[in-house]
Write a structure and sequence with these properties.
By secondary structure, the chain is of the alpha/beta class. The chain has a single domain, classed as Rossmann fold (3-Layer(aba) Sandwich). Helices cover 41% and strands 15% of the residues. It has 8 helices and 7 strands. It has a 7-stranded parallel beta sheet, sandwiched between helices.
């Protein structure tokens, strides 16, 4: 007598900003746990090897890896990525949309003159990349039926959403908007069994941090005040993401979750 063996369909995660930092760590950790990864990143020739390394690490786990080096804010590229994902990912099997896009203008809102101050194009670009894009991608995965009950939407925010830093104004505003979008998505998607939350990591030594003016001082202070006497690491965030994907986490919705080892309460 032959016994029929059922093949389990691999769950998928869509990671925006998959080539480095939090996005790369989440991609690899989930791949280790059997998730296939659709990664979106934007890298030039000087950094493309980092993205390739992330893709190879995912593939080494024996899962599928669809990586796209495209502008995540371009509607035509978004459609291109999602069309390819829809061919590989059965309807309802996208378990996670992880938003970790870190590209924005770090300039004063009001400098000494118009040349040293934030321009309209810079403000609009920063808001579009770091906040509005979450809405566009969330709409698309739900409308296409890729994500269903049990799905998770997670977006990376920062303490800068409520605190001020020199030259951080455009990004601070975008992070505040991102958190507002997360709350609204949580409300609107709850009837479909999809949750939305933001993760506020502690200071982490990533390529995004190193673009902030005076980042060394930010890094050193965080390491000093953190009760664990170290910075947050991308792996710390990846570990929390895996917890939030558990069915038991379905009642965590519409929150900003601190993942910083106690840095915020000590600062």
């Amino acid at each position: 007598m032959f016994r029929r063996v059922s093949q389990q369909i691999s769950p998928w995660a869509l990671v925006l900003g998959a080539s480095s930092g939090f996005g790369s760590a989440v991609s690899v950790e989930l791949a280790r746990r059997g998730y296939s990864i659709c990664g979106v990143h934007l890298d030039r020739r000087s950094t493309i090897q980092v993205a390739e390394s992330a893709r190879r690490a995912v593939e080494a786990c024996g899962v599928r890896a669809l990586f796209f080096n495209v502008n995540a804010c371009a509607s035509d590229k978004r459609d291109e990525v999602l069309a390819a994902l829809a061919e590989a990912c059965p309807a309802g099997h996208l378990r996670l949309l992880f938003h970790s896009l870190a590209f924005g203008s770090l300039v004063p809102l009001v400098g000494s003159d118009d040349r040293s101050s934030a321009r309209q194009s810079q403000l609009e670009m920063t808001l579009d990349v770091m906040a509005n894009s979450l809405v566009y991608w969330s709409q698309a995965v739900v409308w296409r039926g890729l994500m269903a009950a049990g799905g998770r939407i997670l977006a990376m925010t920062s303490a800068g959403s409520t605190r001020v830093m020199k030259g951080y104004g455009p990004v601070s505003a975008a992070k505040a908007a991102l958190e507002a979008y997360v709350r609204q998505l949580a409300l609107e998607l709850a009837p479909q069994g999809i949750t939305a939350n933001a993760i506020r990591a502690g200071v982490t030594d990533t390529p995004a941090l190193r673009k902030i003016p005076g980042w060394e001082a930010i890094r050193d202070r965080a390491a000093t005040i953190n009760p664990n006497a170290r910075l947050t690491e991308p792996g710390d965030v990846a570990a929390v993401v895996t917890l939030l994907l558990e069915p038991a986490a379905h009642w965590i919705n519409g929150n900003v979750l601190g993942v910083d080892g106690g840095e915020d309460i000590a600062g």
